[in-house]
Amino acid sequence: MAKTDSTAIPPYTASVNRQESTAGQDTTATSMLLMKDSVAQTESYQSANSHLMDSFDLPGFSLFGKEMKGLDGFFNKDSELGSQMGTVHDGVLGDPAPYSVSNDDTVAGALLVCFALAMLAASMSRNFILRQLKGLFHLPHRRTNVGETAYEVRFQLFLVVQTALMFSITYYLYNRSLTGGSYIFDSQLLVMGIYFAIFLGYFLIRYLLYSVVNWVYFPRRSNIQWAQFRLFLTSVEGVLLFPGVLLLIYFGVSIEYALIYVATVVILTKILTFYQGFVIFFKRTNVSLQIILYFCALELMPLTALLGILTYTGNYLTINF
Predict the structure, then answer these.
(1) DSSP readout, 117-174?
(2) Distance from the first to the final alpha carbon of the chain
(3) H-run or E-run covering 62
(4) CA 294 to chain centre
(5) CA 21 → CA 14, 18, 27, 121, distances in Å?
(6) Is residue 210 within 8 Å of residue 222, measured between CB atoms?
(7) What percent of the chain clears pLDDT 70, i.e. is strictly above it?
């Protein structure tokens, strides 16, 4: 009987090997099942939270190849954050900034329009202005009475309105420095408008008084000369006040220096008015001293009344604590 080369394996050893092989297969199967379960959970989590990836998109950019939709989706889905976004928080208001003429667009626009129109009109009326300036110190019998065109009259009337505006702004700033700016009206422009109307009324009443008195006592030629001179002088007064008002509003010049400048301009115009009144009406008469009565009645008394009305109006408009 022939012998074989294989070695017989004991029954116990073969049984142990079969048990170890079965255990290894069970471990491998368990690991694969756990991996599949983990992958399934990851995919389900990504699928359930995929909207969050879209919510973090910024306008103009693309994340993971998706078009961006903004942050609204994220805030809308967050109940706590969304409720806080619509909540109005109560608080204490701070003190409002005080009114300043330099920050008022209406005043700035009015000054700019006045400057532009005045420069345009002056460039088109240079000959007229030079003729009037020369006539301020000439005797009326040495010059011919040159008539004024409608354009020149309108130009001077505009400058008269500008003069009233300059006086109203100056007096408003002066009264505000005394009272602190507490008025019965909330609008500061309304207060300036009231002063502006008062100055316009003053110029109109003064013109009417001069017209009535001169028409009664003096010849027509002298009245025309006086009317032309008075209108031009009032126009020049507003032009001279314009730089002072600009310095007072935008460059912080002290109100005291501004008042000194305004008073100087007013005094010079009154001196010229007195001189021209004497030359036009009383130089060739025997009652030359009546110029004092004429000047006081038609120039100083209306000015005194104007100061009283401005003082009364300022006291009425001001809130006294």
Answers:
(1) HHHHHHHH-HHHHHHHHHHTTS-GGGS------HHHHHHHHHHHHHHHHHHHHHHHHH
(2) 141
(3) strand 62-63
(4) 45
(5) 11, 5, 10, 114
(6) no
(7) 64
pLDDT one-digit tens code per residue, 157-203: 999 999 999 999 999 999 988 887 778 888 888 999 999 999 999 99
Average pLDDT value for the chain: 76
DSSP string, 18-31: HHHHHHHHHHHHHH
Name the strand (E) or helix (H) holding 256.
helix 255-277
HSE-up (13 A, CA, CB side) for residue 207:
17
CB proximity list for 191: less than 8 A, separation 6 or greater: 172, 183, 185, 317
DSSP line for 81-130: HHHHHTPPPP----PPPPP-GGG-HHHHHHHHHHHHHHHHHHHH-HHHHH
**In a 3-state reduction of DSSP, which class is residue 286?**
coil
**Longest alpha-carbon distance in the chain:** 185
Let me know how long the chain is.
321
User: How many C-alpha atoms does 280 have within 13 Å on its Cβ side?
Assistant: 27
Q: How far apart are CA 313 and CA 321, in angstroms?
A: 17
In Å, what is the CA distance from 115 to each residue of 130, 158, 169, 193? 19, 11, 15, 19
∠ CA 189-194-196 to the nearest 5 degrees? 90
Q: How confident is the model at residue 280 (pLDDT cuts 50, 70, 90)?
A: confident
